[in-house]
Specification:
single chain; alpha+beta; two-stranded antiparallel ribbon; flat
Length: 106
């Protein structure tokens, strides 16, 4: 009887620990479920009923902001090229207009 109780308790603890590990990943996946619209507008367009929803998103929740941040990320190659251009300008090896043109190209 003690062995059965010990085995049952061990199995129960394993199930609880697995559930706790899975629960840690749920908030990220369920974040979109927790977003509620700030404004809902019903209207008709071309004879069809439409619904428009407006959400107020934080930087973490806004996928457009995340992709914009990734696109504007400074890469080591760009940083090194920028330093090289500024060094050439400081050494008077290129003009300010040429430096500006090169910097725009990065």
């Amino acid at each position: 009887m003690k062995r059965l109780a010990t085995f049952t308790l061990a199995a129960l603890l394993c199930c609880l620990m697995t559930g706790a590990a899975q629960a840690e990943t749920i908030p990220d996946a369920a974040r979109s479920i927790l977003l509620y619209p700030n404004e809902v507008t019903e209207y008709e367009q071309d004879g069809h009923p439409r619904i428009s929803k407006v959400y107020i998103l934080s930087e973490q929740d806004n996928p457009a902001a995340q992709t914009a941040q990734a696109a504007n990320a400074e890469t080591p190659d760009k940083a090194q090229a920028r330093r090289d251009i500024l060094n050439l300008l400081a050494q008077h090896r290129i003009t300010a207009a040429e430096a500006a043109s090169r910097l725009r190209g990065l």
